[in-house]
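ok so for the tutorial part 2 we go from a plain amino acid sequence to predicted structure tokens. step 1 is just haveing the sequence, like this:
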Amino acid sequence: MTLVARGTANREIARELFISEATVKTHLTHLYTKLGAKDRAAAVAIAYERGILG
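step 2 — the prediction. this is what the tokens look like for a chain of 54 residues:
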């Protein structure tokens, strides 16, 4: 979530974490579901509200 909050693209997140871009997308989809978010911006906002990101 920290990389997403910084505005990092999926491709860059994949490189940084040594995983595939498809894996990044899968993880983000699961995060959106768990947070009840519709998109990246909503997920970041919810994460800040819940104290996941500081």
